[in-house]
Amino acid sequence: MSIKFVAQACFVLLIAALFFLPLAAQQAPPPADPAPPAQADTANKPAPAQDPAPPQASTNKNDSDKDKGAQGKNSGTSNDRLFYTLPNFLTMENTRQLPPLTTAEKFKVVARGSFDYVQYPWYGFLAGISQAENSEPGYGQGAKGYGKRFASAFADGTIENFFTGAILPSLLREDPRFYQSGQGSFTRRTGYAVSRIFVTRTDSGGTQFNYSEIVGSALSAAVSTYSYHPKSFITYRYPNGVPMPVFNGSDRTLKNTASVWGSQVGYDTITIVVKEFWPDVHRKLSKRHKAVALESDKPAEVK
Known about the structure:
With 303 residues, this protein is mostly helical. It has a domain at 77-285. Helix content is 56%, strand content 8%. It has nine helices and eight strands. The protein has helices at residues 3-24, 40-44, 56-70, 103-114, 119-133, 142-172, 186-195, 211-225, 254-297, and strands spanning 81-82, 86-87, 91-92, 178-179, 199-201, 207-209, 233-237, 244-248. The strands form four sheets. A two-stranded antiparallel ribbon has the order 1-2. The longest helix is centred in the C-terminal third of the chain and has 44 residues, at 254-297.
């Protein structure tokens, strides 16, 4: 298992724990204050004119406006970010089947996420771990070695994003978006999220095997492994001043390709489970923030 996958998985799980654990310990809301006793004269007054509740259409419009606020420039994508940081532009919440994305839209939203400003420090972090572990020693050490590892990590992630989110979805007419379930128990929702790795929607509204994820990850792993990852090389040791060649194997192997493929699918599985529950966490945090804001706006009691 590659060090990049371990770092990615640990990072996502750590951030998820920081958000989920406090919410799991939340207490039941306090009981509402009892209504004040009705006044005597009120009981003798005739019933006021009917004050109908706001029409359902108006409520739906407000909900629709909120949904639009979370959507990107293209109404079929999102502006959301996991933990307010990581791009989450292809996750759709509380929506039915949307119009299919065009090929241009698929490439545009994938490019938007792949070259997001958050990605650069993230790949820099992965490159630093790779350098510290001296993984793929053919890259060497120092600034030059770090630069190669940074470029390799950036290319690996970008190629995989385009294969699974744009290239194959366009060729196979699959919908690269993740539709949050939002219903059922924790186990059921987790199972649903994991199943989306293997099952996806089509542009026509049906369902089929998720070739974009499974095959796309395999193709991206093969392309990256056999194109720019280090070849075999020879170094020299000098025991007793005599040069001794040491053969260093190539990273361009089927075993390494399979490892990268498994790492990508595993990381995508963890990420999609987090995507399923992130809207719930987001709403709870927003309500808590609003409650704190309202509390701070209350006038101080006069003693």
